[in-house]
Design a protein that fits this description.
Number of strands: 5
Order of helices and strands: EEHEEE
Helix content: under 10%
Largest sheet: 3 strands, antiparallel
Oligomer: single chain
Structural class: mainly beta
Radius of gyration: 20 Å
Shape: elongated
Strand content: 5-15%
Strand order of the largest sheet: 3-4-5
Length: 95
């Protein structure tokens, strides 16, 4: 499924009620959905070594960093705990 936030030509609203008939409401441009589908990057795979220390869930979401020098942080998708993993991760059995 492709979600267009704006028309690639004019930045207007895209009517994508039917995927095969998506068009811009302002300029009438019909984007090439097959090309957009091919250009989409695959979803990032979760890191198997990162897990929530509060509830031991592996459903973690990587948070964006403002700078490359900032710490890498995650938010637990189950309990909402925000944490930064250790450089030397501890095993689940040890915690």
């Amino acid at each position: 499924m492709i979600l267009l936030k704006a028309c690639p030509r004019c930045g207007g609203d895209v009517n994508a009620t039917f995927e095969f008939d998506a068009y811009c409401v302002q300029c009438g441009h019909r984007p090439d959905l097959q090309a957009l589908r091919r250009a989409q990057a695959p979803a990032p795979q979760p890191d198997p070594d990162v897990w929530c220390r509060a509830c031991h869930s592996d459903r973690v979401i990587r948070l964006d960093r403002r700078n490359e020098d900032d710490h890498l942080c995650y938010r637990c998708g189950r309990c909402g705990h925000i944490f930064s993993p250790r450089l030397n991760p501890i095993s689940r059995a040890a915690s």
